[in-house]
Amino acid sequence: MCGRYLIDDKDYEFREIITEAVRNSGNMDVKTGEIFPTDKVPVLFHDGSYTKPYVMGWGFPNIYKSGVIINARAESALEKRMFKDSLLSRRCVIPASGFFEWEKKGSAKNKYLFTLPGSNMIYLAGFYNGYIIGGMPVNRFVILTTAANRSISDIHDRMPLILLKNEVRDWITNRDFALSFLSSIPPDLDRSLV
Length: 194
What we know:
Oligomer: single chain
Structural class: alpha+beta
Helix content: 10-25%
Number of helices: 4
Order of helices and strands: EHEEEEEEHEEEEEEEHHE
Shape: globular
Strand content: 35-45%
Distance between the termini: 18 Å
Radius of gyration: 16 Å
């Protein structure tokens, strides 16, 4: 599962993405630092002509109970009515500096930050949908998760579906690539105790 991630706005590449996302979204504010569900953050999507950053909220509204749905399993998202159309036609990428997971040891919890070796940026595969919330149209996204690889499996059994930078455009614009990518094994990650 991916329930929190990090945006380091001190990183030059991230500052550029944030600036452009804010401009493209009518000067909406974005959250940086530790990102929680429902926060408004930069997301990369295709507007029909270009792949560009835009501000979206994290989590689809949960129509069955309060709260939001923040993750979808890559293995079964196409089988879920709530996700299928978005996965097929509204894919996006969530740029992050890393994501957090917690290791439970008895009553103690250790918090780890997972990052991509040799990079300040990690790209999480997702999809989005449009909603009317409070009388206003808004876009909300979900992060896809998959079985944890060896670099995280001792902490958690799930992890985000991670794209490399050169796969971002294909994920967003190429349905065949995206559908085959759902079963890929994410790259090994570094971890640090926070």
